[in-house]
Amino acid sequence: MRTIGALVLIALTTAGVATPQGRPVDWPSVGGDARRTGWEKSDVRITKDNLKDFQLVLKRKLDGPAPGASALTPPVVIGLLISYKGFKELGFVSGNSGDLWAIDLDLNRPFWHTKLDSSKQGGPQCAGMATAPALTPPAVFGRRPGGPRPAGGTAARPKLPERLGGGGFGGSRSVYALTGDGMLHMVNSSDGSDQYPALKFLPANARPSSLLMTDNTVYAMTNTGCGGAPNALHAIDLAQEETSPVSFALSGAAANGTGGFAVGNDGTVYVQTGAGTPDPAAGKWGNTLIALTSKKVEQKDYFLLPQAPATKKNPALNVTTPVVFELAGRDVIATAAPDGRIYLLDSKSLGGADHKTPLAKSAVIPSAQGGFTGGLSSWEDADGARWIAAPVSGALNAAFKPASTNGATPNGSIITFRVEEKDGKAELIPAWVSRDLKAPVPPVITSGALFALSTAGQATLYGLDAATGKELYSTGNQVTAPGSVTGLTVANGRVFFTTTDNTLYGFGIFLEI
């Protein structure tokens, strides 16, 4: 997802999303973490048994953005902010107009709103898309977050607690934002005011996407050549006294999917590109999953994705954001390729000596008319079994045989696999397929429940049993507009998404204030 006006990134002074029983949790970014898993491990307010009690808990129209499927993002969430108005749970939402809102998620009203510069645009093809905000991720992804020094070259930076406005759980947080001139801004999460002069990060007039902070480093993509900016992954290490942005050019290929890229436990950045002829020796990276070093974003490995068959009606559907998870003590990357299969890759050697050999691969999943959309999700169940879920648009390939189904799926579905190790080798075991869904986005998972959003037509949120795919809850006809394709958020007993008419919805367990 992308924006011209403003991207938003929130940085916490506290480390860690996993919290003790009952303590509010954060949803830090697209996919919930830098690995893009979509898994909230510690939302104790949601169970499979109470999905039947879900109700509409928040509905808020946000004026300003030009309506569209990518005009408004779902919120990233600070579960507990100690603000000048007391204890707050805030959701931060950005629009393609440069608007940034902090929403009081308990009281269903704006906490503050600011308009960031959206005057510099790279042409009509660059407008109309917003990028989801992101919180500093859990401690597993790196050290305590830093922040930018004041502008002015070699000026000394404030000490860490000063830069982030203090420390301790629930203390002051900071919001980072990118504007159309490519500057990285720091915004006060309590009132929306600027805290420090901006830093130069991206080329002006570019179309940025996938803003993320991890291990003191801010990352973002530029795509579609807007403003003459190359398709590239950009990084700036805010822990350095001399903050200088670096980038890795994709040489014409574009990174696609809801999250754009994923980051492993060791800081390796995994970027999957779309259509194009790969030629690594010449620096051409079409149809490739690339591993880049942390912070400096230098190429360290790659996997050559199998090409889409000639019969494929829409090869672009099968380009998604990869997901990273730990298996037997190492990072494993799961990705969906243009040939309609899901591949498992070993982080120690993505494709072996020929850069084409995976750990495991599935059968072809979508039909010739369908494909994967957005990205993959992954979680562990209560027994420690590893799962993968993928949204599919269109019908499934007749040769794909899941263990169970939940009805015909002519329009789309969520498909799942269990990841198992047998004789030291990873295997993808087909599990269940959901009910019929129209243009689904990557699902989110917590406490044995999987939430899927059918976006086309009248948007519908479904709560499913993550072990079987059985439908446990549906919003029915409560939403009247199509859903945005910018994704889902789950935090503190509620699931959030936006619609094409610029409305933010929240469904979940009603909490008495």
Structure description:
Strands 24, 25, 26, 27 and 28 form a 5-stranded antiparallel beta sheet that branches. The protein has a 4-stranded antiparallel beta sheet with strand order 1-7-8-9, with no helix packed on it. It has 513 residues and is mainly β. Strand 21 and strand 22 (342-346) form a beta hairpin. The protein is globular. The protein has 1 helix and 35 strands.
**Overall pLDDT:** 84
Distance between the termini: 34 Å
Query: Oligomeric status of the shown chains?
Result: single chain
Tell me the Rg in angstroms. Answer: 21 Å
Q: Helical region count?
A: 1
Runs in which pLDDT lies below 50 for 5 or more consecutive residues are 1-5, 9-21, 136-170
How many β strands by DSSP? 35
Main β sheet profile = 5 strands, antiparallel
Residue share in helices?
under 10%
Beta-strand percent range: 35-45%
Provide the descriptors you would attach to this structure in a database record.
single chain, 513 residues, mainly beta, 5-stranded antiparallel sheet, 4-stranded antiparallel sheet, 1 helix, 35 strands, 1% helix
